[in-house]
Specification:
mainly alpha, 0% strand
């Protein structure tokens, strides 16, 4: 037996796009004003994922300060690098 769609997950005013509509779509860069597109896609600071060996006591100290400890560690490294 086929399952009926959940009416709470169906939005009649905004139906799912069909392949034809997607094929005719244009990139946001072509449609939005350049200032708006740049503001929406600009990254404040490019980040890079790396693997480092850090003393356990240092990591535990940052973790003990609560949520967002990675951001605080990043800020401490920025400060130490002179940024």
């Amino acid at each position: 037996m086929a399952r009926r769609p959940n009416p709470y997950l169906t939005d009649e005013e905004n139906p799912e796009l069909e392949a034809g509509a997607i094929a005719h779509g244009r990139p946001a860069k072509e449609i939005l004003p350049s200032e708006l597109y740049e503001a929406l896609t600009r990254r404040r600071d490019e980040t890079v994922s790396v693997t480092l060996d850090i003393d356990r006591s240092v990591v535990e100290r940052f973790q003990s300060t609560g949520p967002n400890w990675r951001e605080r560690m990043n800020e401490a490294l920025k400060k130490a690098s002179g940024r």
